[in-house]
Specification:
By secondary structure, the chain is an alpha+beta fold. It folds into two domains: about 55 residues, no CATH class; about 50 residues, no CATH class. Helix content is about 40%, strand content about 15%. The protein has four helices and four strands; from the N terminus they run ββββαααα. The protein has a four-stranded antiparallel β-sheet, covered by helices on one side. Strand 3 and strand 4 form a beta hairpin. It is elongated and about 65 Å long.
Length: about 110
C-alpha cells in the first residue's frame, strides 16, 4: 500500500498483492482528512492511514512532543529540578491543582 498526501488528504493506493488481490495496482483504497481525521474507504487501509496521520497531524506531533518531554523529565528528575520547576510554573494553576490528589485541591485554591 502506498500513502500519498494530496492537499488536505492522505490517500492509500493499492500495490501488487494488497487487499488479497481484490484491488488492482493504483486503486484508491481509502483516505483520511488531515483537517478532521475522518476516514473513508476500505477498512484494509485504515490502520496504515491512521499511522501516517498520527505522524503528521498536529495532534500526533503534540503527542510525540509530550512523550519526549516526559522522557526528558525522567532524565532530569535526579539532578535538574530547575528546568522541571520552570516548566511547571508555565502551566495553568488549575492544571497543577488537578494533578494533585483531590483531597489536597482546597489547599491551593
Amino acid at each position: 500500500m502506498i500513502i500519498k498526501k494530496k492537499g488536505n488528504l492522505l490517500i492509500a493506493f493499492a500495490e501488487e498483492g494488497d487487499n488479497e488481490g481484490r484491488s488492482k495496482v493504483g486503486d484508491k483504497l481509502g483516505q483520511v482528512s488531515l483537517k478532521t481525521g475522518k476516514f473513508t474507504g476500505n477498512t484494509c487501509s485504515m490502520l496504515k492511514l491512521r499511522e501516517e496521520y498520527d505522524k503528521i497531524s498536529p495532534e500526533g506531533k503534540l503527542e510525540k512532543l509530550v512523550d519526549r518531554v516526559i522522557e526528558q523529565i525522567r532524565n532530569d528528575i535526579n539532578h535538574d529540578w530547575d528546568a522541571i520547576s520552570e516548566l511547571l510554573k508555565s502551566c495553568p494553576k488549575k492544571n497543577l491543582i488537578a494533578f494533585l490528589p483531590e483531597e489536597e485541591w482546597n489547599n491551593f485554591k
